[in-house]
Amino acid sequence: xxxxxxxxxxxxxxxxxxxxxxxxxxxxxxxxxxxxxxxxxxxxxxxxxxxxxxxxxxxxxxxxxxxxxxxxxxxxxxxxxxxxxxxxxxxxxxxxxxxxxxxxxxxxxxxxxxxxxxxxxxxxxxxxxxxxxxxxxxxxxxxxxxxxxxxxxxxxxxxxxxxxxxxxxxxxxxxxxxxxxxxxxxxxxxxxxxxxxxxxxxxxxxxxxxxxxxxxxxxxxxxxxxxxxxxxxxxxxxxxxxxxxxxxxxxxxxxxxxxxxxxxxxxxxxxxxxxxxxxxxxxxxxxxxxxxxxxxxxxxxxxxxxxxxxxxxxxxxxxxxxxxxxxxxxxxxxxxxxxxxxxxxxxxxxxxxxxxxxxxxxxxxxxxxxxxxxxxxxxxxxxxxxxxxxxxxxxxxxxxxxxxxxxxxxxxxxxxxxxxxxxxxxxxxxxxxxxxxxxxxxxxxxxxxxxxxxxxxxx
Length: 459
Fold this sequence. Notes:
By secondary structure, the protein is an all-alpha fold. The longest helix is centred in the first third of the chain and has 37 residues, at 46-82. The protein is globular. The chain has 16 helices and no strands. The chain starts with 9 loop residues before the first helix and ends in a 9-residue tail after the last helix. The protein has one domain (3-450).
């Protein structure tokens, strides 16, 4: 095995980083602000933080459904753009808007119909470290407001995803930066009541998030329409609402498995959180802190994974199969290298961040422990993430569903519940065992990528 085949030249890394850096920067700022939000809500108390965290788990399912729909259609967007078929890009954008409308309607109905039963799934307080009733109250307060931001989020993602898939990663980045700045500023003003604003607590956090969603929607759509000359597919977008049958059929065939995967995966992750919550409310707060901190450090290599999907999708659409294979090899190697560096930094310094939170001492200690475990498995996450986007770029959505969602429901979730109910293990033993299952995804991903099952032009 020659090492050179996994290392690119300066031009390669310049191209890769041109796509990846705006995504990285946007995600970094988003996650940094998310951590600041977490700190501000955490300053109110463990119950407030747990309530917000639980609702965010529910909204997480909605968000991932949107991302799944956009990603499923986006496979075609990237390949149409690679072939310079702007009519095809326009049709896929319409598909995204239809999907966003449907998911928004379903999500709103579900969250309005059965909020308390869903929230109750996460409320377990074996160690008497917090009040279940108080947590439920804060969760309902937060949910009641946050629902107002579902629609603008759904539709803004349709435009943002299309811009990224057609080579403009800078605009979504700037839009995201402005949105998170608005979110952070109004969190500070409305949670604590600074500068004459009302002191709203967790409701203030929700209002700030909703405001940021509308700002994001206004900027991204306004820019896309204002720059119609730069984006030919925006011309005549709403002159008609039709999508050719062959395009719609192909999108549904390839996109539906990916949409189902994202819904089931996000639901699986929330179910995994339920399994962790069996160990007490302190674990809910600790998991919220650790995931926020870990995501901040995971951004670099996770963004490279997204870039793999965009670059390989464009090359596959243009019929450059061998160039796509070469690009994927080098990008995966680069992603894993970055993950090793970031994992080392996370292990060394990430455990100090929970000390900034004003939650219970037990929650802070557990969060630091979770962070160090996640630091150790970061190279595994990087490889499996890169494999996922590689397979997806070639339209292997059913395979990616089994690879991603199948392992979650067949292994992660049953193991987490089994270790609690059957073996009565403490969370400090359960968490690393569950996280180590990522190795299985690495093995499967390696085999599938090496077999080149994804090397296919689908348009």
